[in-house]
Amino acid sequence: MLEVRSISKSFPGVKALDGVSVSFAPGTIHALLGENGAGKSTLMKIICGIYGPDEGEMLLDGKRLHLRSTFDALHNRISIVHQEIQVVPRASIAENIMLDKLDRYRRGMAIDWKRLAREAKVFTDMVDLMLPPETPVVALSAAQKQLTQIARALSDGATILLLDEPTSSLTLHEVDRLFDLLRKLKGQGVTIVFVSHKLEEVMALCDVVTVLRDGKLMGTRPRVELTKDQIIAMMIGRTTFDEFRGLLPIDYTRPVLEVRGLKSDLFDGMDLTLWQGEILGLYGLVGSGRTELAKTIIGERRFDSGSVLVRGTPAKIGSVAESLQRYRIGYVSENRKEEGLIMSASVTSNLTITIWNRLRSRLLRILKPRREVDQAIKMIQRLDIKTPGPLQILNNLSGGNQQKVSIGKWLVADCDILILDEPTTGVDVGAKEYLHDLIWKMAKEEGKSIILISSDMPELVKLSRRILVFKNYQIVGVLDDLNKRESTLEETSLRIGQYLA
Question: For the chain, what are the domain ranges?
Fold first, then answer.
């Protein structure tokens, strides 16, 4: 039994945890929920020894626990799998799994690589990572790196396993396999603390639910006693609504973006049209070609033949900067931490980076800091970004607020065409609802044209007024009547499923 009692933790400008008490019982999958910034990650980091609490105590099987580092936590068989992928790219899968145990495999001055790979394979098999243990991690997909992290935690023999958004990079098959594994570990008496923004996963997997809001404990209850709406109300103080949002005033006489006969190493004659004021949804499984098409449009990937037209004129786009400056196309990456944002820079720098050329002094060609901060403050207010100030380092913000910054930098640039790739991945239900409202208003009230790439079916049905279904780098289906009538999630899911069958 792991217990945290009256735990408090403060950082400059914010009290992250305020007198939180929770018990985590052996052989249970315990969900830890809350909006971004509610205190979940802080509590997880205290449990695994990264942070020390300002007040309160932790007990393990009734004995007070003093953790000064993650090594102390591992010694007490507490292990964490972070949402942010933390691997050694140049090392192999086996080396990453056994990274803190390499001394066990020494044979004289050398490492017994065959034994290392053989024993690492036990854990890759557990998580269904079907690759040779000798494979360099640099060659792995994000999902495979995530599975490597989970395998490493299992290799530590943890009896308390902390999982922070473990499914964020996984396919549906990999999620099913992970859930089977977690249920097996639960049966072996392992305590699993499960953080997720996907409430469907919580309802399907977890035994107990604890909800935090603004650093305070809102309650701990058996999952069977809670509905999804009740959990949302505990998290944000109100329920959300997924009702039909109505129709968009799409101008079908004005195509703003066209892809014609595009051929590349992946595509064999791809066609696509985006109309003025439309939200066009792209749906498909991971690796179906949605993101690759987006990156081809903005010039990050090359194509061999075909054409891209912007407002009826052939466009020659050689880079992301060119797509923005010449054609006013913005791209919100699905991988905000590695591709979309500069985590070590300030909120202001991240929000204004797309308009630095406009903010420079004409004579000296240097940025005017006051103008830069003024622009950032306007966007912070518009998007309700929770930050102590415009100069706060972005890495100190919650995931939901980082995502608002990722979108905000393109709004600052006043893009006409926005490509949003998984825009609500890893954000809580409150931030998700806010971003949905923002996307809808940009199309309906500002006339923006939006391509929405999402694996979240309810999100697509709620916002998109036409959906293209991708499979094996082809468009295999089109739902083009969504702006003519109300459609239900069940009906749309069935139609998409038929295309993917």
Answer: 2-236, 240-328+415-501, 337-412
How many alpha carbons fall within 13 Å on the CB side of residue 413?
30
At 239-289, the pLDDT tens digits run: 665 666 788 999 999 999 999 999 999 999 999 999 999 999 999 877 789
Q: CA 431, CA 435: separation in Å to the nearest integer?
A: 6
**Phi (first) and psi of residue 61, to 5 degrees:** 50, 40
- Distance, CA of 276 to CA of 357 (rounded, Å): 27
- Tell me the pairing of strands 160-164 and 191-195: parallel
**Integer CA distances (angstroms), 435 to 125, 323, 358, 396, in order:** 38, 24, 27, 20
Strands 106-107 and 160-164: unpaired
The answer to whether the beta carbons of residues 211 and 30 sit under 8 Å apart is no
Tell me the whole-structure pTM to 2 decimals.
0.69
Indicate the Cα dihedral angle 317, 320, 323, 328, nearest 10°: 180
Give tens-digit pLDDT for 145-160: 888 888 888 888 889 9
Do domains 2-236 and 240-328+415-501 share one topology? The answer is yes
- State the CATH class of domain 2-236: alpha beta
* Full strand arrangement of the beta sheet holding 208-213: 78-81, 160-164, 191-195, 29-33, 208-213, 216-222
Euclidean distance between CA atoms 223 and 446, whole angstroms:
42
∠204-209-212 over CA atoms, to 5°?
Answer: 130
- Using CA atoms, how far residue 417 sits from 60, 323, 364, in Å, is 54, 10, 32
Rounded to whole angstroms, the Cα distance separating 183 from 234 reads 26
DSSP 80: E
Q: For residue 230, give both structure tokens.
A: 């009740």
User: Under a CB-based contact definition with an 8 Å cutoff, are residues 17 and 42 in contact?
Assistant: yes
Q: Are strands 29-33 and 191-195 parallel, antiparallel or unpaired?
A: parallel
SS3 per-residue string spanning 51-70: CCCCEEEEEECCEEECCCCH
Measured from the Cβ of residue 108, the count of other Cβ atoms closer than 10 Å reads: 6
Tokens of 272: 């696509």
In CATH, which of 3.40.640.10, 3.40.50.300, 3.30.300.30, 3.30.70.120 is domain 240-328+415-501? 3.40.50.300
DSSP H or E segment with residue 18 = strand 14-24
Looking at the predicted structure, is the pLDDT value of residue 358 above 80? no
Provide the token pair at 176: 């099913």
